[in-house]
Write a structure and sequence with these properties.
This protein has three helices and no strands. The protein has a domain at 1-37. The chain is mostly helical. The radius of gyration is 67 Å and the shape is rod-shaped. The relative contact order is 0.02.
Length: 182
């Protein structure tokens, strides 16, 4: 190896050591200044405290997450129970509605049957009344026809002399019945 290269390598090594020493000196100064801001604690104490604080924050977050998970699980169970109660209540409402529907149907059927019977009875009464009116009208017409026929027969068979004799006999009979009653 040439001497020039060996001298150059030594020089480079010395420069590198000098740079490292300067860097370490600078870090030492910064650390010294920082140590005053760490409240006189060492870097190890400061790092340990920072790690402990971080661990405490993580533990707190884990506890909060666990509490949130437990609350969510409880809320889920409450929601399931509420849904089950709602299904149960819906079933009872449907059952009551079906019962009401059945009773209303029965009540309406009974009312309809009663109304049908009332209408049929009323129709029978009206038919009977109309029949009686028709019979009465027929009787009146028959009586009128009989009276008209009797008049016609009497008008043809009786003359003036027979009329006078019938009237006189009726007067005698009415006079004798008046005298007999007194």
């Amino acid at each position: 190896m040439p001497l020039f290269l060996a001298a150059n390598t030594v020089t480079n090594l010395l420069l590198w050591v000098a740079e490292l020493a300067g860097f370490l000196l600078l870090v030492g100064c910064v650390v010294a200044v920082r140590l005053k801001s760490f409240g006189g604690r060492s870097i190890a104490q400061w790092i340990g405290g920072a790690l402990d604080a971080r661990a405490a924050r993580i533990d707190a977050q884990l506890r909060l997450a666990e509490e949130s998970r437990a609350e969510a699980e409880q809320a889920r169970e409450e929601a399931r129970a509420e849904i089950a109660r709602a299904h149960e209540e819906a079933g009872s409402i449907v059952a009551r509605a079906e019962g009401i529907r059945g009773s209303l149907r029965d009540e309406l059927a009974t009312e309809a049957e009663a109304e049908k019977s009332r209408i049929i009875g009323q129709a029978k009464d009206e038919i009977e009344a109309e029949r009686n009116r028709a019979i009465l009208e027929l009787r009146v017409r028959a009586a009128d026809a009989a009276v008209d026929a009797a008049r016609e027969v009497l008008a043809r068979t009786l003359d003036d002399q027979t009329d006078r004799r019938i009237v006189a006999q009726a007067l005698r009979e009415s006079g004798s019945s008046d005298g007999a009653g007194s």
